[in-house]
Amino acid sequence: MLENPRSPRVRSVAKLAKKASRSESGLFLLEGPQAVSEALRFRPELVLELFATPTALERHPEIAEAAEGVDVELEYVTEEVLDAMADTVTPQGFVAVCRQFPTAVKEVFASSPKLVAILEEVRDPGNAGTIVRAADAAGADAVVFTGRAVDLYNPKVVRSSTGSIFHVPVAVGADLEDVLGRARAAGLTVLAADVKGDDLLQLRTDGVLGRPTAWVFGNEARGLLDEQLELADRVVTVPIYGHAESMNLATAASVCLYESAFAQRSS
């Protein structure tokens, strides 16, 4: 059992909370029973180290069984060691070190996708992770981070995705114009979400949403620039029927992705 929270091994795991360390090592930090379970189930080859407290394993014995089933060694640690490794203030008893595994943009569009979410300079980790999760839930084929978007392997992004990064291909570091060119070449209609656009209900009526679609979601503070909106086939807004001043980006993205998912399945 690892007992010293100041040991070099513990510190090397804790450093993965920093982008510089993640970039240098090609690794990232995974926390919590749900995310660890998804990694062991869908991408066990990515899990290099797995740590857990005895108390956490008593609550989740299935994780030990899953780790054994895919030949991932599980190491016991004290609560103090787990606290030192984890990025969260109140960790849930499990930490894993995983290899990063971004998908190439060309692979995203080579597989004839029908629904893709593109995040242009989305900076908030919670929003980014939640959109990945929503895209996964809506059955999207991929997610693409473009421009100076938040790091996909930021611990908050990983946590917010709740394991969905292991389910749906995600490409990172791409240029928006290049991505949209590839999307059109693959036969996708490009829809940009923006407050200046057409009502989403109108697109439903027009039958646009049933087509293979790439949705573009912009930065939380400024949205998409005018020149970026001009790259889209249609600009779309999610209508607000109540008195809310605006809608959270991840919530709006979820609505758009599900509208496409409903339309594609009904057609």
TrEMBL record:
Molecular function terms, GO-annotated: RNA binding; RNA methyltransferase activity
UniProtKB keywords: Methyltransferase, Transferase
KW Hydrolase (keyword) present: no
Pfam family name, one: SpoU_sub_bind
InterPro entries hit by this protein: Alpha/beta_knot_MTases (IPR029028), Ribosomal_eL30-like_sf (IPR029064), rRNA_Methyltransferase (IPR051259), SpoU_MeTrfase (IPR001537), SpoU_subst-bd (IPR013123), tRNA_m1G_MTases_N (IPR029026)
Cellular component aspect of the GO annotation: cytoplasm
Gene source species: Agromyces terreus
Entry protein name: TrmH family RNA methyltransferase
